[in-house]
Amino acid sequence: MQAALRSSAITVRNAFLQHLRLTVAATSHRVPILLDSRVSFSSDHGTYLDKSSVTDRILELVKKMEKVDPAKVTPQASFQGDLGLDSLDTVEVVMAIEEEFALEIPDAEADKISSCAEAIEYVAAHPRAK
Amino acid sequence: MKGRLSGIQKQVLSLHRSLLRAARAKPPETREQIERFVNAEFRKNAAIDKKNYQQIEYLIRRGQKQLEMVRTSDGFSVVEVK
């Protein structure tokens, strides 16, 4: 009985010590690694934003454009045909999207974005969008 | 923009973007002033006949010089705002 008690006490003690050792080891090793991986995570790989939140943010932003009738803004709306914008207005919309998502959209890509759907598609497929 | 953009149209839009990007580096009031000026300037000249290449190219060159000025006046405006 006593032996059993002692051995269970040892088990508990060992488990405790093991646990202690583990945490100490974890703090001394993990910190720099964690910081490192975080940096490369956000700069190289990034994550994709949820498409429905991208949609909401883009529609919100398009509705705020001076010339746009907010009632006409839908995920499918084309900037020129549906919203009555021209290529200069489109530049302003795309620039506002760049800022909203902390992106820089190259000219060749920006020239191709001519509707809310295309803008949503571009941002949702961009790993560095924030 | 439904049909493809011509080369010169792409150049104009690219200049427009570059100017708006350069403005972002400025303090808020300066930035807003530059944006308003830039957007109004492009709007005003959008009425030029698209075959008037001489005039358009002249304006593109002028815009590029203005872009350089916006970019290099960076230090000044920061100092001035202080």
From TrEMBL, chain A:
Keywords: Electron transport, Fatty acid biosynthesis, Fatty acid metabolism, Lipid biosynthesis, Lipid metabolism, Mitochondrion, Phosphopantetheine, Phosphoprotein, Transit peptide, Transport. Pfam families: PP-binding. One of its GO terms (cellular component) is mitochondrion. Residues 52-127 form the Carrier domain. It comes from the Eukaryota. Pathway: Lipid metabolism; fatty acid biosynthesis. Carrier of the growing fatty acid chain in fatty acid biosynthesis. May be involved in the synthesis of short and medium chain fatty acids. Accessory and non-catalytic subunit of the mitochondrial membrane respiratory chain NADH dehydrogenase (Complex I), which functions in the transfer of electrons from NADH to the respiratory chain. Belongs to the acyl carrier protein (ACP) family. Complex I is composed of at least 49 different subunits. HAMAP family: Acyl_carrier (MF_01217). This is Acyl carrier protein. It comes from Marchantia polymorpha subsp. ruderalis.
Automatic annotation (TrEMBL), chain B:
Its main location: mitochondrion. One of its GO terms (cellular component) is mitochondrial matrix. GO terms for biological process: mitochondrial respiratory chain complex II assembly. Keywords: Chaperone, Mitochondrion. The keyword Mitochondrion applies. Pfam families: Complex1_LYR. The keyword Chaperone applies. It is found in: Mitochondrion matrix. Residues 10-69 form the Complex 1 LYR protein domain. InterPro entries: Complex1_LYR_dom, Complex1_LYR_SDHAF1_LYRM8. Belongs to the complex I LYR family. SDHAF1 subfamily. This is Complex 1 LYR protein domain-containing protein. It comes from Marchantia polymorpha (Common liverwort).
